[in-house]
């Protein structure tokens, strides 16, 4: 069995790629050494040049796990613009279809596993001709996600184009993977004919790498002068498209108004944003938070310094499906979580497993009581949080689920 996992226009060093792609594929290969796994990565040429050393290291790392990395540094048309304009999109689509056809001449996979909407749309075009099965790994409801973050509106032509593209992918793909049941329910409501192709496989976390570290917790809290404080952590890229810093800060300020000893730890890989200047605009005192830019290796240690991890979003069309890799990483590091109802899938985890609180700024009295109970009675490290991470989201269980899907598709 030969699997080709395809990504388009990603950053080789991004945390999401490391946790959701590299770790997963290595585990698939370790568990099933008789299959062949290839990672086909379409990079922008300037990205391939800038990260050439890191890509070489990655190639060696994957090769050690029995995975072939095929780098295609020819993504010259910037998807930043061409994915978001109806009149520009055909140029990008034509170019990447051409590249994809060239790649197919170099490899003959049984299954092409695509991460995200755009590359899935390209892959399904050739599946019948070249005889491979296609997996559409949604990761999110991409068109509705853009409505939620305010990039698009219901009346925008680009939104309707991507609705049409979504329908075509789902019609032609052999399997559609959703990261939670709410996402699959949404797809089933829109496309009931795809019911047999829907598969639930959650986002994954490396529970060996992301684990609670007591020594790091004590040292980092002491160095911050926060040994006796309630520490709430928020971690994320804080990029322009997906930043929900504004919503999170509202919760910071609410918690700070209730607990004078609350402190906030912001962890982000984005060093280009002047976060203190942004937070000044919200009126958050610089005395009660700190911003750190940890490496991927340092992230679990910093998470261990907290008493809870937080995630909050504004309500939108895809709210019921929202979870976030950050939430799973909080859980793996044995932290309870604080979320609002707009992070719907995370809220469902709280209700199902009692691993944190769901708070609502419109109901301050109830939210205050819930937070008091959390801070008074939830002990870190939380055994419940760690259990959920290991049993539901571990990279081992996700890799096993993907392999079962691969076997099913090959046998059809």
* Residue share in β-strands: 15-25%
CATH class of the largest domain: Alpha Beta
Calculate the mean pLDDT score and round it: 94
Instruction: Describe the strand arrangement of the main beta sheet, using strand numbers.
Output: 3-2-1-4-5-6-7
> What structural category characterises the helix and strand content?
alpha/beta
SS summary, helix count? 19
Let me know the number of strands.
13
Question: How many strands, which pairing sense, and closed or not: the largest β-sheet?
Answer: 7 strands, parallel
The poorly predicted ranges are none
Question: Might you state the CATH topology name of the largest domain?
Answer: Rossmann fold
Number of domains: 2
Give a description of the structure.
The protein is of the alpha/beta class and 412 residues long. The mean pLDDT is 94. The chain folds into two domains: 2-204 and 394-411, Rossmann fold (3-Layer(aba) Sandwich); 214-392, Rossmann fold (3-Layer(aba) Sandwich), CATH 3.40.50. It has helices at residues 15-31, 45-50, 52-64, 79-82, 89-106, 117-124, 127-130, 142-148, 157-172, 181-190, 214-224, 245-258, 275-280, 299-304, 325-332, 344-353, 364-377, 383-393, 395-411; strands at residues 2-8, 36-42, 67-72, 111-115, 133-137, 175-178, 198-200, 230-235, 262-267, 289-292, 308-311, 337-339, 356-358. The chain starts with a strand and ends with a helix.
């Amino acid at each position: 069995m030969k699997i080709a996992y395809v990504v388009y226009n990603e950053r080789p060093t991004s945390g999401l790629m490391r946790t959701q792609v590299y770790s997963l594929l290595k585990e698939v290969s370790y568990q099933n050494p008789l299959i062949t796994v290839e990672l086909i990565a379409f990079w922008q040429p300037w990205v391939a040049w800038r990260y050439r050393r890191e890509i070489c290291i990655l190639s060696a790392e994957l090769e050690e796990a029995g995975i072939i990395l095929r780098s295609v540094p020819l993504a010259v048309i910037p998807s930043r613009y061409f994915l978001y304009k109806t009149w520009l999109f055909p140029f990008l689509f034509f170019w990447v279809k051409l590249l994809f056809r060239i790649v197919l001449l170099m490899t003959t996979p049984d299954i092409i596993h695509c991460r995200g909407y755009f590359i899935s749309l390209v892959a399904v075009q050739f599946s019948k001709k070249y005889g491979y099965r296609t997996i559409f790994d949604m990761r999110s409801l991409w068109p509705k996600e853009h409505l939620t973050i305010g990039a698009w509106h219901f009346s925008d032509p680009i939104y309707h184009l991507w609705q049409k593209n979504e329908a075509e992918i789902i019609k032609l793909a052999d399997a559609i993977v959703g990261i939670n049941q709410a996402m699959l329910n949404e797809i089933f409501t829109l496309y009931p004919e795809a019911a047999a192709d829907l598969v639930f496989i959650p986002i994954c976390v490396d529970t060996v790498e992301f684990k609670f570290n007591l020594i790091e917790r004590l040292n980092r809290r002491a160095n911050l002068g926060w040994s006796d404080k309630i520490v709430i952590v928020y971690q994320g890229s804080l990029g322009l498209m997906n930043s929900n810093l504004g919503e999170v800060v509202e919760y910071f300020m609410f918690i700070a108004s209730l607990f004078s000893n609350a402190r906030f730890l912001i962890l982000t890989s984005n060093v280009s944003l002047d976060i203190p200047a942004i937070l000044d605009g919200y009126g958050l005192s610089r005395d009660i938070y700190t911003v750190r830019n940890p490496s991927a290796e340092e992230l679990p240690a910093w998470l261990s310094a907290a008493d809870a991890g937080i995630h909050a979003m504004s309500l939108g069309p895809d709210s019921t499906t929202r979870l976030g890799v950050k939430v799973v990483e909080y859980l793996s590091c044995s932290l309870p979580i604080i979320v609002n109802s707009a992070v719907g899938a995370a809220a469902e985890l709280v209700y199902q497993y009692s691993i944190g609180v769901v708070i609502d700024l419109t109901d301050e009295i109830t939210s205050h009581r819930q937070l008091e109970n959390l801070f008074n009675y939830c002990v870190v490290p939380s055994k419940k949080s760690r259990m959920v991470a290991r049993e539901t989201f571990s990279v081992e269980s996700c890799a096993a689920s993907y392999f079962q899907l691969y076997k099913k598709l090959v046998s059809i």
